[in-house]
Design goal:
The chain is mainly beta. The protein has five helices and 37 strands. Strand 2 (about 20-25) and strand 3 form a beta hairpin.
Length: about 550
Amino acid sequence: MPVRTKRSRVAIVAGGVAGAAVLGGLVLGTTAQAGPATTAGLRLTSLPSANTKTPNVPVQNALSVELAQIVAAQGSNRLENAIPSVPYYGYDGDSANLLPAPGDVQSTTHNVEATKTEPDKNTYLRLTGQHGADPSYDYGTHFLFQGHEVGKPGYITRINLDADAAHRVTLLATTDVAGNALPNIDGSTWDPWAKRLLFTAELGANGGVWQATPDIGSQVEDISSVLGRGGYEGIQNDSAGNLWVIEDSGGTTIPGKFTKLPNSFLYRFVPVDKTDLTKGGKLQALQVISAGTGQPITFQPIDAAHPDGNAFSQDTKDLHTYGKTFDTHWVTIHDTATDASGLAFNANAAAKQAGATPFKRPENGQFRPGTDFREFYFDETGDTDARSVANAEYGGWGSVLKFTQTNPTADNGTLSLFYKGDQAHTGFDNVAFFDRNHVAFVEDAGDTLHTQRNALDSGYLLDVWHNYADGVQPLRFLAEGRDPSATLDSGLGSVSGSGFQNEGDNEITGIHVSDGDPGKHGILGDRVPDAFTNGWRVFYTAQHGDNVTWEIVRPESKR
């Protein structure tokens, strides 16, 4: 049933003040609040605050009053072609119980409920001729694909949006063409030239990129020999057929400062043949030039001379300061034409060796529609800890960065801070443009920070024309709740030494706006979206807990 919020009686106007919460002397959520986002097809009212985290109390998701949401699939949907190790959309087969049985006791040798597999990034496509487990069933033409971030084995699912309950979710693959188990998967996209789904694994030296066909019995190939191993998450095409890959590899935590070193890179892969990625190409990493020294900003490990690495350097501070613009350059870190072919390589190590610039856990990015792939916005998750010494000035709360080039194949460009996070707006993860000028970023702040700020995750719309240095904050269109399953998991996980394996929150992931076009004009950023109308659909997943994948809609009465 659609979930809607009551209209707030708080006036939402530029310069108005949202409610505040106080924890340990820190004021949370007191911000100048942006007014409604208004374009020809988009007008949304901002929610005044995030949902609070209350032990043992579930809370409903809240959306802008103009919106509602419907379930596309949830973790307890049984797969139409279930196997013992993967029986459900969002649960492994390591327990028959999806919730603890009365009287059952969690221990390090016994889990009271099955492992929740956490479906992640969504990719929506309109395809014909797709099949499922039932050869006599018409599966329709509208599909939503995702990899799963947790559990054994890793796997790929397809939600059949036109299908009934019995045929709703299809298991596509658990192994690659060589018979190897798939890894846990984070990011996904569709490559219209290769005609393959691309999936990323955020597993450091064991991560990488896998390509897959979209039908049942999917043929999955590990292509990390050309794209490298790394903590890859976000992945997008540009109009030239290049792949942009964003790495989320948390750096070393500085003892006593709750601050991670900048340790992750932005990559661009230039294929030899964009219709066949296995033929190789060049992997490049972004290098940013210091505004102070004119030299590249590079990785600095912790050593005797630099006990904090470069976590508190002037360059790190400058990168997180409004009004500063940096020159950039792409540096080639691997070329299959000259480097050892057929062997996977460590992209993170190669980027450091080549003098590329590390960031504070970037996770996802997207091209701004209508710019001919000249503007790219990507986020930094930051440290997601209220105790981080880096929070005030050095990117601890994360950020959104704007990267500009004259065209997507250019070697040089510029980088600037678009939005600087704070305790109430941090942990940005997935991203999607709702229209030409409004970009959504959703939080994965983590349960530690949820407790510290007494606030769950939110989804925000930012206006690309606004200068957020003025203190006005983005529009909150989604205040994520916490379902009963996640609430129960939070309590189980709080028992020290119990070995409980499931997370106790509902992270927002997989925010996705697409009309499903599988051709080259369907690349995210090619055409201007019209969210909720004219075939443009909006999806996200409330990861953990019940693992519900939602479609956000605009009810007829609100259009």
